[in-house]
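quick one, 292 residues, struct below
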Amino acid sequence: MGLAVATALAKRGGWELHLLDMNVQSGEKAVKELGNVAKFHKCNVTAYKDQADIFDSVHKSTGRLDFVYANAGIVERFSFYEKNEQSPPPEINQASIDVNLKGVVITSYLAQHYFRLSKESYGKGTQILIMTSSCGGLYPSPFSPMYSAAKHGVVGLMRSIAKHYYVRDKIRVCCTNPGTIKTNLLDVSRLSSTDRETDLLKAHGWSTFPEEYFTPIEKLVETVLMLIDGGAMEDSKGNKVAAGKDWMLAVEVNGNNHYFRDMPEYSDKMMEDVMKRTDVTEMAPEEMKYYN
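---
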């Protein structure tokens, strides 16, 4: 998905693109295809120093940052339900949580810093952070509960920081929640996995889904570009977002459709008032000094 979006931006022109990945061979192949507008950086997104060094280097070389796509993700490589003879059982593999949530947290934190450094030169309201969640971030996914938990966390992170980022710095934050897209996520040839992990991935690979269940990558790219461009927009059910309200959007992308997904309703007025007390626009001045 990241490469597809980068390709679309390269075709638009006027973008300098920086691709981050652990796979050097794939990364170098990607930038070769994109041409001299792209650079590759080897990066472990779960390592703060890796991301921080790249953000800093890019900003120092360009002086600006317009768009950050927090898109790194891996599939769950561990059966949460597997029976074990030994006690305590073996430690669970939490790489899915580390990459899919912790990596996004690091990216979001660093994006905020370097967006702020760029805003004086390039104006407010033009910068956007888009996180990749999943349909598994809106609905339970029993096969991959840790993946689903991490992707729910991405939606929660987006909704928690979006207002603060926008009110304080005019940085727009949104997330996409794609359905099933044929990406490298379940390509076992690209994964360094044990035999058991590979068997699990094969058992739940793309072949288990009927062809009509897949969402075209082109639709996901179209949705990401819509969010980058911002302004007034409309979803496939006719729900509209006004210009200036183009932030804190969770956009489900399924098939050839996209849907703006609202957060759950408050259970009652008291809960609404409780949660508003944590809102950037509701805090007392003495509280806000810790958040400025």
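The chain has a mean pLDDT of 89.
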